[in-house]
Amino acid sequence: MKQITVKLKGNSYPIVVGGHVLPLLPEFLRKLGLGTDAVVITNPLVNRLYGKALAVSMLKQRFSVKFFEVEDSERAKSAEVAFDLIGKIASYAADKKPVIIALGGGVVGDLSGFVAAVYKRGVPFVQVPTTLLAQVDSSIGGKVAVDLPQGKNLAGVFYQPRLVLADTSLLSTLPRRQVRNGLAEVIKYGVIKDEQLFTFLEKNYTGILDGDTAALSHVVLASAAIKARVVELDEKETKGLRTILNFGHTIGHAVEAAGGYKKYHHGEAVALGMRVACAISCRMRLMKPLDAERVETLLSAVGLPEEIKGISQDRILKAMQFDKKFLGSKNRFVLCEALGHVVVKEAVPLAVVVKALRMIAG
Length: 362
Ligand code: NAD
Ligand code: GLY
Prior knowledge:
- Helix 2 (44-60) links the parallel strand 3 and strand 4 (64-69).
- Helix content is 48%, strand content 18%.
- By secondary structure, it is an alpha/beta fold.
- It is globular, with a radius of gyration of 20 Å.
- It has two domains: 2-173, 3-Layer(aba) Sandwich (Rossmann fold), CATH 3.40.50.1970; 176-358, Dehydroquinate synthase-like, alpha domain, CATH 1.20.1090.10.
- The site of nicotinamide-adenine-dinucleotide (NAD) has 29 residues, from helix 2, helix 4, helix 5 and helix 6.
């Protein structure tokens, strides 16, 4: 078991990474002084897999624990579901300030964080991420939100968890497509900050896809450490530093939106966006073509998509203009200079974007 601290003024918190750490949850809650009343938000699939183990460990340590399930879908990240949960928690524990535990992937994590931030103007919140994507990315850094009909993550706040408990043995039940999805974000960390991590992935991706727990724990820990350091420097994304976490996301988000959030999972869309970002970086003579080739080769080896299928270039460009990364009318891309080093560029000429996009979109 390894521990990292996200050091923030007034709201630092530990990230615990390791195999079979779930039963340690009540001990950590006690140490952090988060009370003995817990509300767990999860979905039916994850509850069936891990709910009982969590409940047993909590009850053994004399915690009260109540589970609420939400639909297993991005549709659960809605204002309706969030306020329905808030009402149910209020009815269950009107006299208490329970700790809210998110047991699930990024959907459950983002939704539960939003609920915790709003209920009684904020109750303690703990992330128990169960997907690779959530363990390396969404559970860390306090971006919590629900979607609106007008767009994804439009109602949200920064609300840091008090603890992230990433049990890598829970990933053994994750479908391979979801492992790939999370690996896209791990590859992103290698490109933006850590060439050694990138090289590790080149050597070990098959083991990771096959569920090698040592390799998985290594990449979760390395990724969490990078995200923690970036968040520490720019908690609320006001200094332009946290922006580097969006490598591949300018096009990635546009692909997700243009596909109606159904065609590609987040990591898959980010993988496509990273291909375009590398192509733009080469065209702007920032990145050596050999480095870009290494990124493309690794993404393909992992089984992440190589082409954008069934979504036209025009739709993607239109969706891009609605992205939060557009400042006024200027676009903003995170581009790669060398593996482990990126730079944020504004107003990349549209012709360069279009040429890079054309390589993978119809
Ligand atoms: P998800 O939460 O939908 O989980 C993917 C699937 O895996 C679901 O069907 C889920 O039930 C299943 N699952 C979860 N754990 C499992 C396990 N251990 N074994 C078997 N199946 C399991 O998807 P996700 O990729 O984890 O998260 C995507 C969400 O995260 C999106 O809403 C996205 O906007 C958000 N996100 C947030 C941030 C952030 O910083 N807050 C960053 C990236 C993504
Ligand atoms: N997922 C990007 C961020 O947390 O800033």
